[in-house]
Each structure stands twice: as structure tokens, then as C-alpha cells.
């Protein structure tokens, strides 16, 4: 299997596409972020307004327009709006269509990681290995299967860096424009500063001559032509409200900490970096001994990784996946030495024992959470995962563990769907329409599936005056606060919390 995966460039894309598709069908949208992009895309189709994104009947200034449009394309292709209206989608096409942009861009990330490694080192085996390494990082387990714009952003940034290295400035700026339309200013900062590092370290140049070259100036012009119109239109329609909310609040103030959305310490990413190397724990000492930091290409890759991690460490607001782009140079660097690694039985045995303990721990946690359906999958899945450590070749150990874990995770997520409320409520509202109240809870996925504009209610007195019949979705512990007669339709799990749907008639 691993040989077919890397047989050609097309195979790298194709098999990556197949791998990322595992677990992308049927699994419902995870709040809070996934349903925001889904709902915005659906409202674009419904209203015909493909310029201004809305979520839950409010303008969403958080992100630029491109990723929403990517979702719109696949929603139209798979008739998602119709499937949501009829409430019948046994194959999970709705979820797969929403995740296709990330699946496709994730597959291209693998291809361009291969090409970037090949461009730097002219070594096909090292380039193949870099893909194996990148697949093993946990960021690419979920970003390539999620309704997030990050896979698109990472791809466009990587392609810009790749074409800068190849001196194709117009193409590079084209992809910077796409990155800028995907997630804003960071789409310029990451490829731009990374290329300057490349010039300083590898080419021993300042970058001033390259910046003012005619080809680069043409590239900047292409960037402005492609990216500026949407920003101009938004400013024309909303003026300083757009500037204040998008540029100042969601970019500058979130970086400086004035906007307290995800505040964490400077050292937040240290344990994340360590955990992300999990599949390589048995080989880290060997890798450390083999990497030559005096090699200018190696030094470039190290600085590329380090500056991104440092940049987001300085930022006062942090999320786990913000540093995901940094793992591309790390994958290229590690891939160069993968074929020199050797297995050691002691390390293999220790990792296997840890994964067996993890199997029992995960199964016990599922038992304590009353998720009995998940217990056999977690127990036997992680147990068999631990057995893969005893394959002879380290590259094969990691690759097959990645594939196997993808399958196990997909089965667990599909099984977990039976405990989740969103699809049950969506189908119920189609068969028996009535108003839905969310009491002391806010599940954004209900907005995406039902197409309704919902809000969280905190005062139970509203139910006394409410027109019957209606539904109440709330946490199980708040049921006793409901002051009208109701029928409990079902219990569910919502982000680890026990919830219930009530019906009042």
C-alpha cells in the first residue's frame, strides 16, 4: 500500500484524498466553528448574496469570503440544500460535501510538501518521506477532514512559498491573494516572511533586489487585482464597522490580547509541539543526532518552523491549529533522514505498552461517560494499533499507524453520532414543525441543520407565554427549572454534557 501511495505525484494526491475521506461522511458538524461556515454557505445559496457571509441571521465579519464560496460550490454540486429540506441523507453526503474543500486542499498540501522537498533537496525518497511525516502530525488528522478554512490557507501559503523559491513571482502572489481572501493578513505574512528567510539563509541575499524586481511588482499588481475587490465592496457597504470588526478586532486585537477570545500563556504551544511528535517518539533521539544544522537548507527549514511557532506564541490569543503551517518544514526536514532510522525493541515495547494502557483508559472513559457503544472500538482499535510498532521499517510503522488510526477514529465518530442531538432534532423539526427554544445552552450546529435563527434563553418564564406546541433543548440538569408541562423526547450528549429535548403541547 505504501509503495502505491508514492508511485507518482498523482498517486500522492489521489491516495491522500481517499485517506482524508475516511471519517468525513455522515459525522455531524462539530460546534462551535464548523456550523458557522456551513450555515453561511447555505444562506448564500438561499439569498443569492455571495459577497456577505451571515451566520444565524447576523453578519459574520470573522473571515474573508473565499472559503465560504468553496463550500457553496460543493453544496450546489451535491444538492445539499435539498437534502436538508427533506431531512433524508443516509450516506452523509451533506457532511462530506462541506468537508470536500478541506479534503481536496489537504491532498494538495501533501503533493506540494513533496514538491517543496524535491525542489530543496532533489531527493525523491526524502520528498516521499516528508509526506509520511506530515500525515503523522495530528493537525493534519482533523484539519483535512474539518469544515475549517485552515487547510485552504495552509495550501495557498505553501504554494506561494514554493513558487517564490522557483522564482515564479506572479504565481506566488496569486496564491498569496487566495490566502488573503481565505483568512486575511496572515495569508501575506507567512509566505512573505518565510521567503525572506529563504533568501537570507539559502541565497545569502537581502531580498531588496527581488522585492523591487519587475516580476515581483507585476505579482503585487496581480495580488491587488484578485484580492482587493471583495475588501473594497465590504468597506463600501459597511464602512468602519467592517474595518473595526474584521481587521482590528479579529486580527490586531486578537493578536495583542485586547480581544479575549482564546487567551493562553506564551508557553502554550510547547506541550502541543511535543504531543504532535507522538508517532516519532521512538526515533527522536536518532533524528536529533542526524540533523545537520550547518546545512543551509536545514537551517532554513528550522527557522521556518521556529518563527511561525514563535509568532503565534507571542500572540495573546491562541488555538491549537494556529501553528499547523509550521509542521510542513518540520516534515520536510525529518523526511530527509527517515530512511536512516532504525527500530529498537526497547522503544517499540515501551510505546506498545503505553498504547495498550491508552486502549484500556479510553475504553474505561467511554464506560464512565455511558458511551458503551464506543468501548469495543476503542479497546481493540488501540490494542491493534500498538501491535503495528513491531513492523521492521520505521517509515512503515508510522504510515500504517496513521492509516489504521484514521479508520479507528472514523468508526468511533460514526458510533458517537447515535449519542448526538443535532440530526435527531433536525429530522424531528421537518416531520413535526414547531418553534425550537434553546434554554441555557447554545448548539450552533442546530442553526446549520435546521436553517433557523436560534438564540439562547436564560429565563424559563418565557415558556409560560410561548405559543404551543414547541420544543425545548436544554441541559439535563436544567430540566427541573422548566415551569410548563412537557414530554421528554430523548436524551443526548452535547460536548460532553448530558442534554435533553422536551416537547410542550
Could you walk me through the main structural features you see in this protein, from its secondary elements to its overall organization?
The structure is a single chain. Helices cover 62% and strands 7% of the residues. It has three domains: 2-262, no CATH class; 342-419, no CATH class; 422-504, no CATH class. The model has no long low-confidence stretch (mean pLDDT 94). The chain has helices spanning 2-5, 9-21, 34-47, 66-77, 80-86, 93-121, 124-136, 139-142, 150-165, 169-183, 186-203, 208-211, 214-238, 240-256, 269-276, 284-290, 296-314, 327-335, 345-368, 375-387, 394-416, 422-431, 444-450, 462-465; strands at 54-55, 58-59, 435-439, 456-457, 470-475, 487-494, 497-504. It is built from 24 helices and seven strands. The longest helix has 29 residues, at 93-121. The strands form two sheets. The protein has a five-stranded mixed sheet with strand order 4-3-5-7-6, with no helix packed on it. Helix 6 packs antiparallel against helix 7, helix 9 packs antiparallel against helix 10 (169-183) and helix 17 runs antiparallel to helix 18 (327-335). Helix 23 links the parallel strand 3 and strand 4 (456-457). It is globular. The chain has 505 residues and is of the alpha/beta class.
Query: How many β-strand runs?
Result: 7
Arrangement of strands in the largest sheet: 4-3-5-7-6
Unreliable stretches (pLDDT < 50, length at least 5) are none
**What quaternary form is this?**
single chain
List keywords for this structure.
single chain; 505 residues; alpha/beta; 5-stranded mixed beta sheet; two-stranded antiparallel sheet; 62% helix
Amino acid at each position: 500500500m505504501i509503495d502505491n501511495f508514492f508511485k507518482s505525484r498523482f498517486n500522492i494526491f489521489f491516495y491522500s484524498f481517499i485517506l482524508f475521506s475516511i471519517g468525513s461522511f455522515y459525522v455531524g458538524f462539530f460546534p462551535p466553528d464548523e456550523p458557522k461556515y456551513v450555515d453561511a454557505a447555505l444562506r448564500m445559496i438561499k439569498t443569492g448574496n455571495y459577497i456577505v457571509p451571515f451566520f444565524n441571521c447576523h453578519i459574520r465579519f470573522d473571515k474573508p469570503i473565499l472559503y465560504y464560496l468553496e463550500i457553496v460550490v460543493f453544496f450546489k454540486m451535491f444538492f445539499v440544500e435539498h437534502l436538508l429540506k427533506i431531512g433524508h441523507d443516509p450516506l452523509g453526503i451533506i457532511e462530506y460535501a462541506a468537508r470536500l474543500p478541506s479534503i481536496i486542499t489537504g491532498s494538495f498540501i501533501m503533493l506540494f510538501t513533496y514538491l517543496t522537498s524535491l525542489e530543496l533537496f532533489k531527493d525523491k525518497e526524502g520528498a516521499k518521506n516528508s509526506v509520511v511525516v506530515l500525515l503523522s502530525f495530528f493537525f493534519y488528522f482533523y484539519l483535512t477532514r474539518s469544515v475549517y478554512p485552515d487547510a485552504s490557507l495552509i495550501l495557498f501559503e505553501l504554494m506561494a512559498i514554493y513558487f517564490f523559491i522557483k522564482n515564479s513571482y506572479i504565481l506566488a502572489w496569486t496564491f498569496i491573494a487566495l490566502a488573503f481572501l481565505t483568512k486575511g493578513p496572515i495569508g501575506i505574512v507567512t509566505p512573505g516572511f518565510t521567503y525572506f528567510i529563504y533568501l537570507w539563509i539559502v541565497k545569502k541575499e537581502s531580498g531588496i533586489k527581488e522585492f523591487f524586481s519587475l516580476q515581483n511588482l507585476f505579482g503585487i499588481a496581480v495580488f491587488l487585482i484578485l484580492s482587493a475587490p471583495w475588501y473594497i465592496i465590504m468597506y463600501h457597504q459597511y464602512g468602519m464597522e467592517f474595518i473595526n470588526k474584521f481587521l482590528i478586532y479579529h486580527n490586531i486585537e486578537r493578536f495583542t490580547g485586547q480581544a479575549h477570545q482564546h487567551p493562553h500563556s506564551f508557553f502554550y504551544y510547547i506541550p502541543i509541539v511535543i504531543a504532535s511528535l507522538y508517532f516519532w517518539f521512538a526515533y527522536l533521539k536518532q533524528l536529533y543526532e542526524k540533523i545537520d544544522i550547518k546545512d543551509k537548507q536545514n537551517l532554513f527549514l528550522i527557522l521556518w518552523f521556529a518563527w511561525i511557532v514563535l509568532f503565534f506564541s507571542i500572540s495573546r490569543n491562541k488555538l491549537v491549529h494556529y501553528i499547523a503551517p509550521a509542521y510542513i518544514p518540520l516534515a520536510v526536514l525529518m523526511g530527509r533522514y527517515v530512511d536512516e532510522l532504525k527500530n529498537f525493541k526497547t522503544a517499540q515495547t515501551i510505546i506498545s505498552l503505553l498504547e495498550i494502557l491508552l486502549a484500556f483508559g479510553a475504553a474505561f472513559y467511554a464506560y464512565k461517560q455511558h458511551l458503551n457503544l464506543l468501548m469495543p472500538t476503542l479497546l481493540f482499535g488501540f490494542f491493534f494499533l500498538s501491535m503495528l510498532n513491531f513492523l521492521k521499517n520505521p517509515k512503515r510503522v508510522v504510515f500504517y499507524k496513521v492509516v489504521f488510526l484514521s479508520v479507528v477514529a472514523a468508526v468511533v465518530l460514526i458510533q458517537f453520532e447515535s449519542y448526538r442531538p443535532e440530526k435527531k432534532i433536525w429530522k424531528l423539526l421537518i416531520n413535526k414543525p414547531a418553534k425550537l427554544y434553546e434554554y441555557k445552552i447554545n448548539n450552533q450546529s442546530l442553526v446549520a441543520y435546521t436553517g433557523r435563527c436560534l438564540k439562547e434563553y436564560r429565563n424559563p418564564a418565557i415558556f409560560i407565554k410561548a405559543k404551543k406546541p414547541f420544543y425545548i433543548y436544554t441541559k439535563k440538569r436544567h430540566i427541573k427549572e422548566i415551569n410548563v408541562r412537557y414530554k421528554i423526547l430523548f436524551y443526548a450528549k452535547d460536548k460532553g454534557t448530558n442534554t435533553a429535548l422536551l416537547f410542550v403541547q
